[in-house]
């Protein structure tokens, strides 16, 4: 007997919600867990607090305009109860009904409420979820502390992260944003580098280039014949807006990679030109390399000595005679290499170019 090699293990699917469509196709959807759901709840609580504040101010202004005999404690208490019901129950029900199963917090986090079979959530299910949530979960009118512990325990032990309201209403909260691992797209194709350098890409818009990039990033996940059909369709659209035509004999994915690589190279070149122009016009806005250490000053000349006639000394900046803190190296004025000779008292001396000579003073 000869041992057979074990087949490579297939990676586990990203979705774990266990949803199956009406065509008996398993949906690659991930169920929302306690972390993302608590974050969505906090955002919803903030939105409800703002809504409650707006309602309170509006009702208060309306009550101030009523006659004094009509406003009493019973009316104020009834209005407060109605407002509380509208905020705690009406807010999630109306949002899930008219916003495809998403409240403001769920929309920000990327969650959605659906039925247990994957269908859109119904108004009846949203109402049941809201009533159960207000009674035993949040804010928990029946034994608040005990109901909170029970709700957290149910969410952590359920395989799909459902809470008590989801179990009663037959709903499920899923993620709407898929976490996909993107592969890098080739930035250059050596075999087509000469042709790509001459391609006119002025009519290639961003949407079509993005579609080609997404195709190349996920081409390893596609199977034939869908992969070839999609690649041929993208290349047909791109080849219709670029010139000159590509040399024959290459797969469509290679042509797409060459076009995107050349487009990326040109965009990077334009970005470099823009940064260079910005650094020239506004050098203080561009972070530069750290300033080098200041060089040691040259030895001072002995008092009473001066350069002999006819010699040229290196130009030096005019320094104030008053002693003070050392001037940083980067703050020193730029010196020009040219040296201008001036005659003073019958001798030759050097002065920096651009400074006024004292010969005529």
Mind explaining what this structure looks like?
The protein is mainly alpha-helical. 44% of the residues lie in helices and 6% in strands. The protein contains 10 helices and 4 strands, in the order αααβαααβααααββ. The protein has helices spanning 34-64, 73-98, 104-109, 123-137, 144-157, 164-169, 193-196, 206-217, 226-239, 252-281; strands spanning 111-115, 171-175, 339-344, 347-352. It has a two-stranded antiparallel ribbon with strand order 1-2. Strands 3-4 form a two-stranded antiparallel ribbon. β3 (339-344) and β4 form a beta hairpin. The longest helix has 31 residues, at 34-64. The protein is elongated and about 85 Å long. The protein starts with 33 loop residues before the first helix and ends in a 9-residue tail after the last strand. Mean pLDDT is 77; it is low at 3-12, 293-297 and 300-361.
β content, as a range?
A: 5-15%
Q: Could you tell me the radius of gyration in angstroms?
A: 38 Å
Q: How are the strands of the largest sheet arranged?
A: 1-2
Tell how many strands the DSSP assignment holds.
4
Distance between the termini: 111 Å
Percent helix, as a range, is 40-55%
Mean pLDDT: 77
Oligomeric nature of the chains: single chain
* Helical run tally: 10
Low-confidence stretches: 3-12, 293-297, 300-361
Order of helices and strands: HHHEHHHEHHHHEE
Name the shape in a single word: elongated
Tell me about the biggest sheet?
2 strands, antiparallel
The class by helix and strand makeup works out as mainly alpha
